[in-house]
Amino acid sequence: MLFRGPSRDLAGPFVAFLGGTETYGKFVREPFAALCEGATGRVSVNLGTVQAGPDVWLNDPALLDLASRASVTVVQITGAVNLTNRLYAVHPRRNDRFLRAAPLLQTLFREVDFTEFSFVRHMLGSLQAASPAKFDLVAEELRQAWQARMQMVLSRLPGAKVLLWIGSAPPPAAGCAMALDGQAPLVDRAMIEALGSQTSGYVEVVTSPAARAQGTAGMCFDPADEAAARGLPGPAAHAEIAAALAPVLRALP
Predict the structure, then answer these.
(1) What is the largest distance, in Å, between two alpha-carbon atoms of the chain?
(2) Which tens digits make up the pLDDT trace of 146-203?
(3) Which pLDDT tens digit goes with each residue over 195-230?
């Protein structure tokens, strides 16, 4: 796998950042991992990957081996939809890409033609529209798979671990109807709290209205990518994330 960089000397202590598109810092000159290094003086290694989640991390032994050498690992909370489970399979590196439906899902939704789908959220949105009641069964399978996968990731990181929530709103309460949009769809607060015994801290960043109002100001992208850039944190949001993380990282050995 290729990562954003820049390269770092890993002979000494360092902080690793595992995450998806937001951690990677797509369209942003200085992602929050780089800002944290400047704020704390601790070497920071950005292992964020576009559209990544627990499946990417667990399917790449070299990646987890690298992260396991960190004194602290910040793990971004990504959604519960982009992972292979008993109902469907996703691409091992681009977890947002839908590969195939399992016979169980095809039986549950006989009225749906799964060959029409290339992306997971499109597929799930169609299932939810076709039958909200049956979609609830799918959502529960995804939440359970996410919980097990995240526990496995955390168990393979012997150093301190900090969970990071990034969003325009806090995690929803358990039992609330959860939409498929947002940075971490189908993940609720109870699911995050259930991982608490395996972590050293939790940082929840709800980006401010002022940061969101800046839109794409200060971001770097081709005109064709403007719509994608509008859906991602800009420089001001990354600064807020770094400001929330820095004191937690300073306090950890």
Answers:
(1) 56
(2) 999 999 999 999 999 999 999 999 999 986 766 787 779 999 999 999 999 999 999 9
(3) 999 999 999 999 999 999 999 999 999 999 999 999
Q: Which two tokens stand for residue 196?
A: 């608490």
Within 9-167, where are the H helices?
21-24, 32-40, 54-58, 61-68, 103-108, 120-130, 132-155
Total-model pTM: 0.94
Question: Residue 172 and residue 91: Cα distance in Å, rounded?
Answer: 27
**Got the DSSP string for 196-228?**
GGG-SEEEEEE--HHHHHTTTTT----GGGHHH
Number of H helices and E strands in the chain, helices first, is 11, 7
Name the residue among 42, 52, 41, 61 with its Cα closest to residue 18: 52
The 8-class DSSP code of residue 59 comes to: T
- Residue 74 CA to residue 252 CA, distance in Å, equals 12
Residue 7 burial (10 A CB sphere; 0-12, 13-18, 19+): exposed
Q: How many whole angstroms separate alpha carbon 95 and alpha carbon 83?
A: 6
Distance CA 250, CA 99 (A): 42
Q: Closest Cα partner for 94 from 166, 186, 24?
A: 24
DSSP state letter for 179: -
C-beta of residue 145 within 8 angstroms of C-beta of residue 89: no
